[in-house]
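Deliverable D5.2: sample structural annotation.
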Amino acid sequence: MSLASKADDLTSNQATQLLQKAADAASAGDPVGAEKIWQQLLPWVRKQATPGSTILPGSLLQLAKTQQSLGLFAQADASYAEALLLSRALQPPRPKLVAALLNDQADLNSELGRLAEAKKLLEESIAIKLTYLGETHQEVGIGYSNLGDLLREMGDQDGSENYLQKSLAVLMPAVNKHPLPVAAALNNLSQLQQERGQWQQAEYSLIRAQKLRSTVLPAPHPDLILGLNNLGMLALNRNNFSSAKAYLNKAYVQAVDLRNGQNSSIATQEASLARLSSETGQLGSALMGFQKAQLLFNKQFGATHPDSLNNLADLLLLQHQIKRSNSITKQLKELLKNRFNLLTNQAWQLKPKERLLLLSKRDYSWYLADALAGFYPEASHLALSLRLSSQGLLQEIQREQKQLLDTDSVSEIFDKQGSNRWINSSQVASTLPAKGILIELRRYLDPALIPRDPKVALPWRYRAYILRSNGALKIVEYGASENLDKLIRSAYVATNEELTDAPKLWNAVSKSLIDPLRSLAPDADEWFIVPDAGLHQVPYQSLAPDRNIRLLTAGRDLIRLNENNTSANLTKSVVAGNPQIIRNLPATSTELSGVAELLDVKPAVGLGFTSNELRKLSSPRILHIATHGYWDSAKKNNVRNYDSTTTNDPMLRSGILLSSSENIENGKPDRFSAADFLGLKLNGTELVTLSACSTGLGDLHDSEGIYGLQREVQVAGARSVLTSLWPVDDAATSDWMLRYYKHLKLGSSRGDALKAVQNEFRSHPKQVWQQPYYWAGWQLVGDWKPIQGI
């Protein structure tokens, strides 16, 4: 029977024979042959399919799987979508078919890096299987395995382990009858074990998986090749180069034998062998291997496929390592933009904690532009553009989504999903005043200098990118980050403990951090600073009294904050605090009454200051809260590793104390956490002042800054927030705040008012209050301009 036969010429028997041939070709790892047969069969199937029949959606499912294996992703997407649409409409319902389609469509989305979509599809598939098949069915175990591996890719190791263990508990009883699903689950478990450094367990899992595959699959087969490759890469990661070479060479030979090398495994094996060459010092061979793999990946999957991008990252990192990086900036820009756009689209669909976990999965190629910036001007602008685009990205997404939800614009959440967020330095430069500069402080490392031994500290460094309004860009190198961090920490501790040498220590910080900036921009009087890592703990305005300091969460905030406040529904300001609790704040009463008088409002104090009252707020022009603050740093996260457990959520470990209507007699307060602030409606609020201890502290996260009160107040919609870097004195704070609001009332900008009050305290009549502890810790982040209407 010729494959050229028309649909009208096929008999039922011929169609049945072709269906079997297509299935045989697919199972033998021949997607090209299978796809040709399915394309011939599909017209006949469409013509013969009757209402309620599963033959058309079932055929589309098989075609989609074949198209996916051939790298025809757009076609596979369309086939899956049509099959799922048809399956959902079948009468009587076919839940098993729907579940299978959801599972396989999730696999496609996962392969393309669309992890959020994949998660939703898998969760629906598993729910259907549990309902109609029961919790001990093999298909449920397969679903658990797939979801466990997906969660690992999304950075959720705990969730991944949970589902992978559940998968094996379901699948293992039938391992002799159905070995392949168990092999797949063991392979997924091994990937997780490797990420956790559990090398022996990972090797055991992979060896078991490969033995199970070998019992039912003939060599060469794609799954057997994958197993050999995984064993080889595990050996490579453990520096067992001889075993790695043996496994990878065997995998390559089988890949060549499979359909005469016409298969997607070849690209993977070329890349793996290139990695082996790179690790063993054969850099010339490694370069050729990565280049060959790149051509194959691009041809097979397209340049934007995650596998293509991962190989390109390895190729560019190697070129940088062997100092052949003078021509890679264009490719690097495409790599970073593609990865950034994929991250952005995924982050828009995920929950806040899931976003941060996904962010932690970025590899060190994200720092490659920084490493090259010192040598090539175009790399400097690329590094700054990536910083402008990615710094505070998750906070921006969360703020925009909350604003849309608060205004009942839920449909727009999906409309904005794919919006372009890449920012070029010229876009931000155009917003700067003539004598203003943007200072992007950056903690980075050179990927070529990362030690192989994970026990050796990473070589982090600090740098400042200085952008002028004309687009000119200069760089300040600060060297190893640990040096500045030690200086800052010493000054911070001395200030906290009110030691007399605190000013001297801060002067040392200023000499190291601020003076180089003055030297490169002596004429700039307005500095827009975006801190990073440990540099968030610096009281910038106090260290540069001759400059006008504006602190921002992200440099691109200049674009948004330079626009006028378009919120037309601002309500009158709110002044609240001094809760009815055991630890009274005597001077706070003076502060509240004075600030309230300046803002022409009545303060809410004592039992009028409760969580219920706060939640009734609707975009007050100014929100001033004076109370006790709390920050529990005992379980602080590592900057690059986010712990998603509730007990370690920084949004629950930071907050303020309120009066409690339920515990009046014993004076027990309510804790109003940073997470609670997220529920407030502060869209367009000009200023939120948190006049309490340590309200500016939080966990530090790479590219996202501080996770704590400051962040959630901005996410809730406030244009600026005034917080404290350390515990504050009640009486001095009352004086400080009254002076600050008097300046605002007289028309000073928010930033200039802070600078003026700090200068006043330097020569305060109370000599003890001249110490930095009493005045330097107040930080204004966000909009620096005057507040209209007060």
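Annotation notes: The CA atoms of residues 82 and 324 lie 47 Å apart. Residues 1-5, 635-646 have pLDDT under 50 and may be disordered.
The annotation will be released with the project's public dataset once the embargo ends.
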